[in-house]
Amino acid sequence: MVQLICSQFDEFEEALYGVQGRYVLRTRQQRDWQLKVVDLNGVALMSGREGAGTVYTGIGLPGYFNIFVPLTGHETTVVDGHRFDRRRIGWMVPNAMFHINATHPASWLTVAMSCELVLHWASLREDEFDFSLLHRNLVSNAQRNLGPLLWLAQRLFHIDAHSPEALHSESAEHAARMEVMDVVFRLLLPVDPPHATARHNRDHQEIIRRALELLEVLEVQTVYTEDICQATCASERTVRNVFNQYLGMSPHRYLMIRRLHAIRAAIRHAGPQDTVTSICARFGVWDFGRLASLYRQYFGTLPAQSLKAARAARPHG
After folding, report:
1. For the chain, N or C: smaller number of CB within 10 Å?
2. What's the CA gap between 229 and 238, in Å, rounded?
3. Are 115 and 65 in contact (CB under 8 A)?
4. How far apart are CA 118 and CA 282, in angstroms?
5. 162 and 216: one domain?
6. Residue 218 sits in which domain range?
7. Edge-to-edge strand list for the sheet holding 64-70
């Protein structure tokens, strides 16, 4: 994790991710400037604490979309002429200018997402995605509670600071990227898109059959909802509806439970050098605390206890 504490805004200004711009101080500096960045290789979360009231004029860098959420000073923050409150969010597209006016020192969270990943996410959800988002800056009320994004960001900053090896394997970064983007776009997209209709009528039984076949053929740790969409030639919305219809849960939850079962099986057959951490890393798990809680919820014990019991049950010698 990049962590920066500086007494002047110049260094802070140069370190901002996904945007380029200039600060003008509108009040006397009152505290140090602080910045934390978690880079997930195409998605980056940035938490900033400014040292003074400011006006920031910036432009989104060519390769990135950004979402902006004030953490403090909501009522004294204005973006492109729109005054914020605790529900509002800002959306910035590449190569478009924006202005953030904060009359008091403020703290904020941004998420920068590469154009490639955003376009891929949208292509899998084309029957519910608002493609006008790709072409204009926006300030609006979030479609859902901001809590899940703030909680997820807090967990990522904490884990990146204390056990970065858990977060920065290829599979863990991919899982974290997808989780962040899902949360971000659920804030931006309507809960029930008024004109969302399936572009093609597909046999739902065929979709669920292909999805389950994919899980049998591939190792469960390598499968994500987007892979099911591609294998079934269906949008994310259609896949989600089919899973809820036939299995009583979303594909994300079903994959999570399947992954838990696979981790349990790997623990029960662990080799002498295996640890819970090394096993979980193979399955793209980056938040061990959440994994342990879910594991105990489903299996009545903690992963470490399962590993200890499995080793004690093996014959010696």
Report:
1. C
2. 9
3. yes
4. 26
5. no
6. 193-313
7. 2-6, 33-39, 43-49, 107-114, 64-70, 88-92, 138-141
Q: Is 2 helix (H, G, I), strand (E, B) or coil?
A: strand
Residue after which a domain boundary falls, among 160, 186, 212:
186
- Domain total in the chain: 2
How many angstroms separate the CA atoms of 239 and 235, rounded?
6
C-alpha to C-alpha distance for 127 and 30, rounded to whole angstroms: 48
Please give the backbone phi and psi of residue 143, each rounded to the nearest 5 degrees, phi first.
-75, -20
Out of 157, 186, 215, a domain closes at 186
Residue carrying structure tokens 């623990």: 267
Q: Which amino acid is at 138?
A: L
The pLDDT tens digits of the residues spanning 182-195 come to 999 999 987 554 44
Predicted pLDDT at 237 = 86
Share of the chain above pLDDT 90, in %: 57
- Tell which residue, 180, 7, 172, 163, has the closest CA to residue 109: 180
